[in-house]
Specification:
Length: 264
Amino acid sequence: MNMHTARAALGLDTLKTILGISVLAIRWDDAIALLARLIAERRFTKVSFLNAHNANIAYTDPVFAEALDDFLILPDGVGVDLAAKLLYGAPFPDNLNGTDFIPAFLQASARPLTVGLLGATRANAEAASVKLAVLAVQHKFVVIHDGYFSPAEEQAIVDRIEALRPDVLLVAMGVPRQELWIARHIDARHCTLPVAVGALLDFLSGTVPRAPLWMRQLRLEWLFRLCIEPGRLWRRYVVGNPLFLWRVVKQKFSYRPKPAGDRR
């Protein structure tokens, strides 16, 4: 199930297009119910999140943009909210960032699920699985492999996923590698819901700290992350955020209809 069939399934025109990527405009509780329904019906659906950073990558990487077209995309962060305001006059109904939304979804899912974890370091993935098992005791969490595998190891990992066939597969390899890996290797034989989760396992493990709640409520988590890892993240935020907004402004003014009588 991709974004276009999602719209048909929901019976609503719920997509907002940000820099060519279709993003689901949906409330938090409705998104949880949607994912639960997809799992219950065993409808294979690739899931990812759009924020300013990966929107910028998709803008210049057509292979990544094409892969995202077959994912159910949820809105993540203040950047895409600003974009939705600029382009559509209203922000997304809720911020469905994976770091908060995926643990909340797993907590809310009463039906016992098998959840596979793939990515991060082995230590972080193991620590994340322990944390998730405390948060959502009804589910079984299985660490499949860390994210640092060679091409020679790839087939064995895919075979292990197929043998386990988890309901949910959390893939934490960073953008765009995680989405491209899912697109190239994972289908309905392997799991029901593969989810590209970025740094989720690092956050859950406690290795990478979260911003204080007040900063998250003010939508300033990106600033906290920049302060924690300036060397790695300055280009993403200091250069990337203004570039993203500039591209959104260009999108807004590139679709103006020609005035009546202008036949040039």
